[in-house]
Amino acid sequence: MTGTSFFNEQKEQSLIKARIVEKYFWVWAKVIISTVKKSALEPRIAYIDLFAGPGRYKDGSKSTPAKVLESAISDPDMRNMLVSIFNDADVANVQSLQQTIKSIPGIETLKYSPQILNHEVGETIVKTFQGRRLVPTLFFVDPWGYKGLSLQLINSVVKDWGCDCIFFFNYNRINMGLSNDAVKEHMNALFGEVRADQVRANLKALMPQDRELTVIEAICKALKDMGGQYVLPFRFRHEIGNRTSHHLIFVTKHVRGYEIMKEIMAKESSKQMQGVASFEYNPATLQQPLLFELIRPLDELEAILLDTFSGSTMTMKEVYDQHHVGKPYIKKNYKTALSNLETQGRITAEPPANKRQKRKGVATFADSVKVVFPVK
Question: Which pTM does this prediction carry?
Answer without folding.
Answer: 0.85
